[in-house]
């Protein structure tokens, strides 16, 4: 079994403790230790960071091309084809990339990061195809949200076919952007409320639907692997929206000033506490680390936000930061005690 240095030391200390307590024979301890192999360097992590850097650099490269007017003019002269033809070319190119990615995955199934990089190139080509499709069929209505929906559907369907987590997450993010654009279109503008709902309230409802769908994914073998990522994205969106609502209320951020009442704000604050509590309870019952961490983190975010709201103007800054330091110290002490209990160590 291959472990890193930190894991090896932890296992060695645990086996030593069990051996001293008579729970483990000395010979068994030596056998277990001999089965461990320490990894000298975590090349997998290096590969992961390198591919993320490659994706980021690729995105920056595309952005630089778009921002460079001279280069864009040169590309326009280079590609003198009609928009429909460009869309078809990029569609064929993206299909070829996805097919190559599927073939590469069947041959090199362990090279996860290389696979995802290929799939990302296919996603970029698909986006270009959809963009030129929109240019070709544009009627001047400004309803470009349908193109985003098409992109989201393509990413999600292809991710299921090719078992790509990157494409799935990308599809979820594009789906969220589609929801933003679609509600803005039907509301009559980006600064207009949608049936009285601001963007945080809209996305709160959207994230609830996504969260319910994430649990439905576990019913099918093909989509079961996407449960964690869908749950994580929807939970982050849900809690961030609740946090914004607890600070600003149902503000549509339009031209007209809006001031939420304290009753409305406290309603959202209570909703955030309840949501955090439900996430904690469900996390412990289901042994779900994503739910537990989300519940704890946003419960603390809620408490510290209220502390800043009501303490910043009322307290002397020295007292404010002293209480803040004390709260972090108590939190650290509690976390340290839990860590010591879990690792079986005693305080010296």
TrEMBL record:
The entry's keywords: Membrane, Transmembrane, Transmembrane helix
Membrane-spanning intervals of the chain: 49-67, 87-104, 116-134, 140-158, 165-187, 199-218, 225-245, 265-284, 291-312, 318-335
Signal peptide segment: none
Protein name: DUF2157 domain-containing protein
